[in-house]
């Protein structure tokens, strides 16, 4: 919740899920979410639709909050992954149903996490050609 947000609108709501039946429903929400069924927990980030001052920047705010969660997961020695739900209507509907979300909340992403079976080294993705200097 310490993530920056446009005009401090803080559009997020967090659902911490440990219920195995719900984790299985979340896993079925996306073709890329199978690992959610085996995870001990997941955080589902949802955005509010009420009292939002800059709706055009809600997804940016949500992505920043998601990154903060992923950084904390890593800092705790755990493993996690961001699974895109928004803006795919079918995925959003399945997540909303699995969590019985009110109409005022829209699923953004699922972050399953736990102790990784193995620790893969982070690849070096730095590409100097993508950095441009304007002097």
Distance between the termini: 36 Å
Number of helices: 3
Q: Averaged pLDDT, please? A: 96
Largest sheet: 5 strands, antiparallel
Q: Segments where pLDDT lies below 50 for 5+ residues?
A: none
Q: Which geometry do the CA atoms define?
A: globular
The percentage of residues in β strands lies in 15-25%
Residue share in helices?
25-40%
Structural class: alpha+beta
Q: Tell me the radius of gyration.
A: 16 Å
Number of extended strands:
5
- Return the string of H and E elements: EHEHEEHE
Task: Give an overview in words.
The chain is α+β, with helices and mostly antiparallel strands and 135 residues long. The protein is 27% helix and 21% strand. The chain has 3 helices and 5 strands; from the N terminus they run βαβαββαβ. It has helices spanning 20-27, 58-75, 89-99; strands spanning 12-17, 41-48, 79-80, 83-84, 105-114. Strands 1, 2, 3, 4 and 5 form a 5-stranded antiparallel sheet that branches. It is globular and about 55 Å long. The N and C termini lie far apart (36 Å). 26% of the residues are buried. The model has no long low-confidence stretch (mean pLDDT 96).
The gist of it:
By secondary structure, the protein is of the alpha+beta class.
What are the defining features of this structure?
globular; 135 residues; 5-stranded antiparallel beta sheet; single chain; alpha+beta
Spell out the blueprint of helices and strands.
Blueprint: E1 12-17, H1 20-27, E2 41-48, H2 58-75, E3 79-80, E4 83-84, H3 89-99, E5 105-114
Antiparallel strand pairs: 1-2, 2-5, 3-5, 4-5
